[in-house]
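In the laboratory, one determines a bound structure by crystallizing the protein with its ligand and collecting diffraction data. In a computational setting the workflow is compressed into a single prediction: the sequence and the ligand go in, and a structural description comes out. We illustrate the idea with iron/sulfur cluster.
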Amino acid sequence: MGLELVPVSRPAPGSGGITGTWRTLRPVVDLKKCIDCGICWLYCPESVIDWEKGQKIKIDYTYCKGCGICAHECPTKAIEMAPEAGL
Amino acid sequence: MTVRIDLLPKTKYVVPGNSACAGCGMMIGLKVLGMALGEEAVLSIPASCASVVQGLGPKSGVALPILNVPFASAASVATGMSEAFRQLGVKGQAVVWAGDGGTADIGFAAVSAAAERNSDVLYIMYDNEAYMNTGIQRSSETPKGAWTTTTPTGKREAKKDVALILLAHGVPYVATANIAYPQDFYRKIKRASEIRGFKFIHLFAPCPPGWLFDPSLTVEVARKAVETGVFILWEYDNGELKLNPPSSALVDKSRRKPLVEYLKLQGRYAHLSEDQIKQMEEEIDRKWQFLLRFAQAARPRA
Ligand SMILES: Cc1ncc(C[n+]2csc(CCOP(=O)(O)OP(=O)(O)O)c2C)c(N)n1
Ligand code: SF4
Ligand code: SF4
Ligand code: SF4
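The predicted complex, in structure-token form:
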């Protein structure tokens, strides 16, 4: 009947909701300053930064919580935390 | 030795949109665990932030097989899993991912028993230095002097060195790690999972709401803990205890950054007097001397 006897959750985005709405500051990337080192990708606790060497980074703003770790750790200061519009 | 950053796996074992606080240090650790073990890891997680951050069913924010188990049972459950893997001939690594409260306090008897049995378990204690998900109560891993909701004027007792206690059990592998050094943590997980028997890693994982700092500083706080000598990176493997970089270059205490550079980032230390900070500095040095004597004693004879 498709009933599960053990309560099982399956991996899916948004288990905590649309967490991008938590953000008060938004990481804005200046790709001209980016040296493609991957450090922001490595440290982002939310896994919302996509990175393949040679293709530069991309941030998923639907779930980015705006913690600012990426901006703080970026060696070239290519990421700036800007106030979210409407706040 | 260090894996190149662009060669680390890209699979997302921490799934975006989970319930962890912004800037959670523990989640950086979980990411690295996934990168290092991938589909081979099966986790046993006791009550903690690590059980909460997965989110509410039917979705999960961590893409690894996880058994969420009651307190004090995590190491025993992992022992059972490892026995099942062995009997069924399944290639898997039973991993306990537990907080400091669930390890050093509430689950300690089960951890010690699994170590004594030398169960084939990789036990990782992520240390946010308090019972965070229930509201920042002190644990035996909360450092002396730190504010928590149950130590409003600063904790009076010293931090328990649980990694050294596990080392004294005679298990094959014990290490410390820190989320500011993901490649070091990655290498240690890989190395530990090659060993059959009980492995213990103490992972330093800052917590912005619990330590009272801005979430952008999680990695900075973790790094400063190592650079000031508060947290020492070391590894016990093959009967030998070694310091790891950058701690290995900080044996001479004049090479360490002043302790205040670590303390001043965190509100939980805001009330400390200069005298108390001096005392802390002396205690940190005693900790180094103690560990270095262990390293000396645990060196294999030529
Ligand atoms: C037997 C039992 N006692 C108490 C609790 C309540 N409880 C849930 S999590 C927790 C604290 C866990 O602290 P820690 O292991 O340090 O993990 P953290 O929350 O910091 O991640 C407590 C006391 C419980 N779930 N079960
Ligand atoms: S840390 Fe900075 S320089 Fe490095 S990839 Fe990210 S944005 Fe680019
Ligand atoms: S602000 Fe935080 S969550 Fe958003 S991309 Fe940067 S590190 Fe990731
Ligand atoms: S309370 Fe601390 S450890 Fe727990 S999820 Fe939040 S940041 Fe992470």
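The two ends of chain B are 24 Å apart (CA to CA). Keep in mind that any predicted model is a hypothesis to be tested, not a measurement.
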